[in-house]
Specification:
10% strand; mainly alpha; single chain; Arc Repressor Mutant, subunit A; 56% helix; 3-stranded antiparallel sheet; 6 helices
């Protein structure tokens, strides 16, 4: 009985590993590229409000996740998460700034025009 259970467990583990490798092979959501945007949550609304308040509307005025997180009252990882996903729908642009570490973010024209509070209620 013990060997039958072991074999079943190892088969389950190898099936999980093959699913993970298949996801990696097809690209998936990794790095800064995402295939879809997230739903409107309180955190996402906070990120958009902060970007608007900071007037981050083009690559010259793009802000780092650290600056946005302070304004939004969130962690930098949350800011990056929502900005990377919002890029998939064309609301945010991710910019690689030469003299800074990491990426900076700014709203696109579509992102600037959207009201995050109304979008969250819809």
């Amino acid at each position: 009985m013990a060997t039958a259970t072991k074999t079943k467990k190892s088969a389950t583990k190898s099936a999980k590993k093959s699913k993970k490798s298949a996801k990696k092979a097809t690209g998936g959501d990794s790095g800064i590229s995402r295939s879809r945007d997230t739903k409107w949550t309180d955190k996402k609304v906070s990120v958009f409000k902060a970007l608007k308040a900071l007037k981050a509307f083009d690559s010259g005025s793009a802000k780092s996740a650290k600056v946005i997180s302070k304004k939004a009252g969130l962690e930098t990882k949350d800011v990056r998460h929502y900005c990377y996903h919002a890029q998939a729908s064309g609301l945010v642009k991710v910019v690689d700034v030469e003299d800074s570490r990491g990426y900076s973010f700014h709203l696109t024209k579509a992102g600037k025009e959207i009201d995050p509070v109304k979008a969250a209620k819809a």
